[in-house]
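testing teh design pipeline on a random one, pls ignore if ur not involved
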């Protein structure tokens, strides 16, 4: 049984848009969690730091909330299959709910619109086949915020302020001669240490906001994917999207600046690309895995961090993560 949390989910969604935009401005990068993890497995430093930041965010959440209620997750065989399909699908489609749905839809990316529509429709079908008969009607909506929610909301200001201070420091202290030397390619001299700090702060911020939205609980995702015609429907994910995507779109289209990362390096935000078979096939596989378990990379990595802090359900989160990695490694 799921309980809709409109206010917390909306505020969490709003909070997600801020680190997504911060990373874009500071590093010129898409906040894509599946990409972080896939690159981390292959030893990429920025991928490792971003993944570590999400885990640290989960540890902070575990410290704030303690063990909390047990998260409803699928049996181990379903968990392993889900992780593998999500890993394979996100590698093929080059994105998941963070990179395609949050960041991509905010940019009005044609590829992200196609990917999101595909994995969402597939996930709805998979959920109805796998979960529909087993779920009981949802509870009445809870419009309140408990003490842990309020603490998480306040805690988000710390990494957010860190990102703002990093931006201000670079702009004021290192200025044009150091980080804004233009080349023929339009890139700036890169400051790798600052870029890693930006990845860490935005990842922690994202983790706290996602937990505030309550969408780290796969039960709420599954209940949303049943759609409003089912008595177990929980609209919390819709409130997250309402909080995240409009503000994300406004920030991208009006406040992204000259498309030169403040901390140097290339501007790695994809331009419009073709919707191809690889993108659609990957999105279908991701949607099946997502719908079967209600899990995607962000919530799992954050819950893994929380489990490290509390010792609760560590085996389940680790098993899904390893199967996700295995799925990604199947794609060259």
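output:
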């Amino acid at each position: 049984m799921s309980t809709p949390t409109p206010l917390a989910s909306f505020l969490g969604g709003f909070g997600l848009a801020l680190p997504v935009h911060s990373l874009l401005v500071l590093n010129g990068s898409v906040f894509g969690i599946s990409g972080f993890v896939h690159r981390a497995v292959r030893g990429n430093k920025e991928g490792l730091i971003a993944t570590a930041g999400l885990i640290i965010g989960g540890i902070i959440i575990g410290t704030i909330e303690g063990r909390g209620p047990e998260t409803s997750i699928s049996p181990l065989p379903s968990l392993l299959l889900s992780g593998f399909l999500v890993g394979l699908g996100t590698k093929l489609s080059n994105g998941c709910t963070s990179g395609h749905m949050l960041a991509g839809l905010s940019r009005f990316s044609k590829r992200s619109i196609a990917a999101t529509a595909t994995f969402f429709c597939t996930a709805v079908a998979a959920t109805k086949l796998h979960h529909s008969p087993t779920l009981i009607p949802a509870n009445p909506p809870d419009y309140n915020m408990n003490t842990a929610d309020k603490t998480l909301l306040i805690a988000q200001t710390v990494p957010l302020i860190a990102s703002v201070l990093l931006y201000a420091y670079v702009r004021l202290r290192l200025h044009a001669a150091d980080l804004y030397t233009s080349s023929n390619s339009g890139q700036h001299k890169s400051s790798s240490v600052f870029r890693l700090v930006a990845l860490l702060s935005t990842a922690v911020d994202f983790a706290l906001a996602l937990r505030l939205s309550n969408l780290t609980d796969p039960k709420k995702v599954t209940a949303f994917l049943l759609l409003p015609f089912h008595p177990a429907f929980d609209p919390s994910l819709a409130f997250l999207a309402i909080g995240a995507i409009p503000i994300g779109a406004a920030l991208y289209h009006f406040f992204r600046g000259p498309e030169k990362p403040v901390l140097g390096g290339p501007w790695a935000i994809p331009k419009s690309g073709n919707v191809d078979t690889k993108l659609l096939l990957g999105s279908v596989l991701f949607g099946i895995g997502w719908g079967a378990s209600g899990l995607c990379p962000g919530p799992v990595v954050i819950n893994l961090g929380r489990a490290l802090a509390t010792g609760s359900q560590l085996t389940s989160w680790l098993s899904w993560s390893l199967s996700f990695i295995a799925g990604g490694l199947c794609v060259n």
